[in-house]
Amino acid sequence: MAKIERNDIHIISRHSNWSESEIKARLQRDVYHDKEAWQKFLNLLFISLGVGFTTAGILFFFAYNWADLHKFAKLGLIEGLIIAITAVILFSKWQLNVKNILLTGASMIVGVLFAVFGQIYQTGANAYDFFLGWTLFIFLWVVVSNFAPLWLIFIILINTTVILYIEQVAQNWPEIIPFTLLFGINTVFLFIALIGEKLSADINPPTWFTNILALAAASFGTIAICYGIFDDYQASFLILVIATALLYAYGIYYGIQTKSIFYLSIIPFSLIVIGSALLISWSDDGGMFFVISLFIILSVTFLIANLIKLQKRWVN
After folding, report:
1. How far apart are the C-alpha atoms of 284 and 289, rounded to whole Å?
2. First to last CA, the chain
3. What is the pLDDT of residues 16-35, one digit of tens each?
4. Inter-axis angle of helices 148-168 and 207-230, to 10 degrees?
5. What are the residues whose beta carbons fall under 8 Å from the beta carbon of 31, sequence distance 6 or more?
6. pLDDT per residue over 225-234, tens digit each?
7. Of 166, 183, 162, 176, nearest in space to 235 by CA
8. How far, in Å, are 56, 110, 161 from residue 133 at the CA level?
9. Where are the domains of the chain?
């Protein structure tokens, strides 16, 4: 049975003989967070802030004392800290969430280690090598922990590596290729998160995580299609359009099934942007810009009105 929510109680109270005390007791039991829940939240919050500030402090420490430190001290301090954090994670009896937060902090410190190593030995100016090494060396931690924030950092590192590689090495690629590649990467991770949730109970990504992936995939797909429209429909453009159409169709289906306004918002907004780009590609005179402005106003108004209507239907 699904967990009862605040709106459910309000609807039942309007159509039943519940007293005020019964409604208050039901809200207190099923909706409001108790003292234990708040203590757990604050515990994780302060641990996360502590790990984040500690990582930032390590960065500032090396930046301020860089000239006065021997290279052995620079590398030894960071490696010792990573080993100490890993030992605490392996041998302590702390809660799993606390260990995952510490592991996320250790993953960030791995990036500091690679940055310090590159500065000491001048390993080159290709920044994508740095992010690629960082990504590979935390891969096992990401898979073992199955922790959404750490997965998000991992995916950001992959996107950053691809972007920097294209900027520094594959400079001759058509402009549509980088965004198509990024669209594909984020789409794959999104499908793994959504479909894996149904295949295995161990894969249970939070909503914010899948929403970020969906937003990234829709953004890169929209930009890639707009580039394809203005580049006279290159060979890869047809594949991109088909892939985007399939993703958007599944996103609409998933949004309706899960009653998620998020998916039913970003996909139509993406289509509005693509439609506007298509109109501009046909003509860029003043009359066409008036038509595009009218198209955007009417389509956005129609979309918001229908989303509000759909939200009310789901609530009631």
Report:
1. 7
2. 18
3. 666 666 666 666 666 555 66
4. 20
5. 4, 5, 6, 9
6. 888 888 765 6
7. 176
8. 21, 10, 9
9. 175-316
